[in-house]
Write a structure and sequence with these properties.
By secondary structure, the chain is an alpha+beta fold. The chain has three helices and six strands.
């Protein structure tokens, strides 16, 4: 999608999320399906703020993603819908390359997503922090 070309490095992740939420949300791209007032929480310490508030700030954070990692794929999606589709838990994996070291990056995630008025209003993310640390710490490779 040309509109979000600067975020291409994370496109497999965006496509997986969009697929997981299907008809529960409106919009074609990840950034189209999030609310302007989204709260995006990451419950790990690896360089991202633990809490990001607002669509613009989330887009800003993802803007630098491609400077470090290029995803080739995202898969092994399992989606659990609860509360009449107002809450969705997704489990998935991403696969890519750390650009500075050319080290392969493979990680597993679990995200809890809250939806209101057909947009994502809250996101809580868990991941395999050790997998990320090992891939990003070039001294280990």
């Amino acid at each position: 999608m040309k509109k979000y070309a600067e975020y291409e490095a994370a496109e497999p992740y965006f496509e997986l999320v969009r697929k997981a939420l299907g008809e529960l949300v409106d919009g074609e791209h990840f950034f189209d399906i999030i609310a302007d007032n989204i709260v995006y929480e990451v419950l790990y310490e690896l360089g991202w703020p633990r809490r990001i508030e607002g669509r613009a700030e989330l887009m800003n954070q993802f803007g630098g993603y491609g400077d470090y990692i290029k995803l080739q794929s995202a898969d092994h999606l399992i989606a659990h819908k609860a509360d009449n589709g107002r809450t969705v838990v997704i489990e998935y994996e991403v696969h890519g390359t750390v650009l500075a070291t050319d080290v392969k990056y493979n990680n597993r995630f679990c995200s809890i997503i809250k939806i209101q008025r057909r947009k994502i209003v809250h996101w809580r993310d868990y991941m395999d922090s050790l997998a990320a640390w090992n891939a990003l710490d070039s001294k280990r490779k």
